[in-house]
Amino acid sequence: MDLRDKLGRLGSPVPRPPEAREATLDELRDKMAAILGRPVAPPRPPADPALSSLPFARVETEHGALYERIERLAPSRHVGRMPVDAATAASDELLALLALDPGLAGVDPKRALYLDTETTGLGGGAGVLAFLVGLLWFDADDRPVLEQLLLRRPGEERALLARVEERLSAASAVVTYNGKSFDLPLLATRRVMNKLSPLPSRPHLDLLHVARRLHRRRLSACKLTTLESEVLGFVRGPDIDGGEVAARYGHYLRSGDESALAAVVEHNAWDVVTMAALVGLYGEPMTTLHREDLVDLARTFRRARDLDRARDAAEAAVGSGVGPDALRVRGEIAKARGDRARALADFEALAADVDEPAVRLELAKLYEHHVKEPVRALALVEQGTGEAPEALERRRARLTRKIAKGK
C-alpha cells in the first residue's frame, strides 16, 4: 500500500469550530502558566475602533477604512526662530546645491510634500509596517497642513498606502529626514506586499544628508531633535526615544490602550513640522546659518561647483571670525577659482597660526608654481608635508634641481 492509499484510509480531518480552537488555546495557555508558575493573565480587549482619545477620524475609502488627522496650522507657526511657511519661499536652486542634486532645481517648494513614518521595526524588512505616516503640505493660501495617517490594524494597510500615493502624486517633490534609506524604501516594500503599483517618482530632498554637510563641524550628531535645539533654537520638551515607538504600537495592538500612542503621534507631528522649518532655513543659508556652519556651507557649494557662492560663504566665514578653518576654506576655494594671490595670502596666514603638514604642502605648491620660489618651497618640504615617501622624494629632487638652475 503506497503513501496515498494510507493517507486516504485516515479520512479527511473534521473541521473544528472556532470556539473549540479558542478553548484549546486557552487550555494550553493555562498549562504553560502553571508550568512557569505565573498567574493566568485575563484576556485583553481588542483595540477600540472608535479611537476616542486620539485625534483621528475614520474615513471610508474605496480601499477600506482610513484613520486620519488633518490640522491646518497657524500661518505664524514657528519652530524656534524659523516660521514654518518660510519653506514656501525657499530657493529651489540653493536646495539643489546643498543636496548636490540638480534634479531639485526647478521644483516648486510650495508643492513639496513632507513625509515621516513611525514603524514596527528599524530594519525595514518585509515584515516591518509603517503604522503612522506624518505628512505636511501647503494649501492654496500657503498655509501649512498637517496630516497623519494611523494604521489601526495591520489588515487595513491599503487605504493608508493609497492616501500616501494620492498626496505624493500631487506634490512637486518629497522631503524627508533619512527617507532615502528608510521611509521611501519601506513604503515601496509595503506596496509590493499589498500588490499595489509603485509610488510615483518625485525629486527627493533628504534633509539628513544636507544636515551632515552643513553642521558636521559643530554638532557631534545630526538627530532631528539636535537640529531643533542647536540650529533652530527650539526644544520640543518631553519626547519619546525612537526605540520605544515599535513597543508602544505593539502594546496598543494587544491592549487597545490608546494612551500608548499619544506621545508617538505628537513626536511624528513635530518631525514633519520641523522639516519644513529646516527647508525655510536652508533656502536662505547665508543669512540664517550659524556662523560656524558657514565653513561647511562654503565647502558644500564648492562640491556643487558653484565657486562664486562658495567664495561668498568663505568670505562670510572669515568675516565672522570663525578662525583657521575659515582661512583654509577661503584659500582652497581661491585656488580652485584660479586666484593664486588670494590663496597664497590665506595659506601664509594659516601657516603662521597652525602647524600642519597639509598646510605646508599647499603653501609649498604655491611657492613653487605660483611665485617661483623653490627655496621657500623646499624649506617647507623639509619641515614635513605629510606626503608619502616616494612623492616627498620626487618633490624634493625637483625643487633641488630648480634651485641649482636658478629657477
Concise synopsis of the structure shown:
This protein has 407 residues and is an alpha+beta fold.
What key phrases describe this protein's structure?
407 residues; alpha+beta; seven-stranded mixed sheet; two-stranded antiparallel ribbon; 17 helices; 9 strands; elongated
Describe this structure in words.
With 407 residues, this protein is of the alpha+beta class. The protein is 52% helix and 12% strand. The chain has 17 helices and nine strands. The protein has helices spanning 3-10, 18-36, 92-99, 157-169, 179-193, 207-215, 224-232, 245-255, 259-282, 285-288, 294-303, 307-319, 324-336, 340-353, 357-369, 374-383, 389-405; strands spanning 57-61, 64-72, 78-79, 82-83, 112-119, 130-138, 144-150, 173-176, 204-206. The protein has a seven-stranded mixed β-sheet with strand order 1-2-7-6-5-8-9, sandwiched between helices. A two-stranded antiparallel ribbon has the order 3-4. It is elongated and about 85 Å long.
Radius of gyration: 30 Å
Strand percentage lies at 5-15%
| Uncertain spans | 17-22, 36-49
Structural class from helices and strands? alpha+beta
> Can you list the strand order of the major beta sheet?
1-2-7-6-5-8-9
How confident is the prediction overall: mean pLDDT?
Answer: 89
- Give me the number of helical elements: 17
Q: What is the helical fraction, as a range of percent?
A: 40-55%
Succession of helices and strands: HHEEEEHEEEHEHEHHHHHHHHHHHH
- Number of beta-strand segments: 9
What coarse outline follows from CA principal-axis ratios?
elongated
Span between N and C termini? 103 Å
The biggest beta sheet, please? 7 strands, mixed
